[in-house]
């Protein structure tokens, strides 16, 4: 069964460093999403992406964040200068057509900022 | 804006007993509703969804949920749980037909099935 994959599973970085979280969505999906979950808190929407541009973004998704589909398979989330409060589990999701309202989630990348 | 409240953070239940996981939402517009399950070290998997039609929705693994518009609830039920149902369950909503597909999640309920 096709699935969304994410690498790495755990990333540790120093405050102020740049990190790139990688996702491989399901191959025929066209819509991509990033969510995050700070420990003990809700899963929060960050951004959605379609046709090589951002469709929606939340207030969390400020200038420190960017997304890219650098090739036909990967979807990345970059955090330019990490802060302690960026420590969270980051989930990538994809959907074939958002009107079907089923987003398929990856297992997540745990980001720890020291 | 939407919000979701899952009233129980943890629910222990004995194997083969019934379970109900509660979810209430708040929204100024109509919404679509979802339940996701997360097993350890895995991603969120869709259990079931309500878009329209019958308010009783059946999902995978024997789960069902009932949409109650007047009470703004979407509680998840299973008549007889198994050990394998031990996981975290998330309720989520998205605006209906508004061109926005972002999911708003509750904090999750950890279901522990006791042998």
Question: What is the CA-based Rg of chain B, rounded?
Answer: 14 Å
Intertermini distance of chain A: 37 Å
Uncertain regions spanning at least 5 consecutive residues of chain B: none
Shape of chain A: globular
Greatest interface (CB-CB under 8 A), with counts per chain:
A-B, 26 and 24 residues
Q: Note the total helix count of chain B.
A: 0
| DSSP strand count of chain B | 12
Total helix count of chain A?
0
What's the gist of this structure?
The complex is a heterodimer of chains A (114) and B (115). Chain A is mainly beta and 114 residues long. Chain A has strands at 5-7, 10-13, 19-24, 31-37, 43-50, 53-57, 65-68, 75-79, 88-95, 104-105, 109-113.
Structural notes for this entry:
The complex is a heterodimer of chains A (114) and B (115). Chain A has strands spanning 5-7, 10-13, 19-24, 31-37, 43-50, 53-57, 65-68, 75-79, 88-95, 104-105, 109-113. Chain A has 114 residues and is an all-beta fold. In chain B, a hairpin with an 8-residue loop joins strand 10 and strand 11. Chain B is built from no helices and twelve strands. Chain B is an all-beta fold. Chain B is globular, with a radius of gyration of 14 Å. In chain B, strands 2, 5, 6, 10, 11 and 12 form a six-stranded mixed β-sheet that branches. Chain B has a four-stranded antiparallel β-sheet with strand order 3-9-8-7, with no helix packed on it. Chain A binds chain B through residues 3-4, 31, 33, 35, 41-45, 48, 55-56, 58, 91, 93, 95, 98, 101-108, and chain B through 4, 32, 34, 36, 41-46, 49, 51, 90, 92, 94, 100-108.
């Amino acid at each position: 069964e096709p699935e969304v994959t994410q690498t790495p599973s755990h990333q540790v970085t120093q405050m102020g460093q740049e990190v790139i979280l990688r996702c491989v969505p399901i191959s025929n999906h066209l819509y991509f999403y990033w969510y995050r979950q700070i420990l003990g808190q809700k899963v929060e929407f960050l951004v959605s992406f379609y046709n090589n541009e951002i469709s929606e973004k939340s207030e969390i998704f400020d200038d420190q964040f960017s997304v890219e589909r650098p090739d036909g398979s990967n979807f990345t989330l970059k955090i330019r200068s990490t802060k302690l409060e960026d420590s969270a589990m980051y989930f990538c999701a994809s959907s074939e057509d958002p009107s079907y309202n089923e987003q398929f989630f990856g297992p997540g990348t745990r980001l720890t900022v020291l | 804006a939407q919000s979701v409240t899952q009233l129980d953070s943890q629910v222990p239940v004995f194997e083969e007993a019934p379970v109900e996981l509660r979810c209430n939402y708040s929204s100024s517009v109509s919404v679509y509703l979802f339940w996701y399950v997360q097993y350890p070290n895995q991603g969120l998997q869709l259990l079931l969804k309500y878009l329209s039609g019958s308010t009783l929705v059946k999902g995978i693994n024997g789960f069902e949920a009932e949409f109650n518009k007047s009470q703004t609830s979407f509680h998840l039920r299973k008549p007889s749980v198994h050990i394998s149902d031990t996981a975290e369950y998330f309720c989520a909503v998205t605006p209906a037909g508004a061109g926005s597909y972002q999911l708003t999640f509750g904090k999750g309920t950890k279901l522990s099935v006791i042998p």
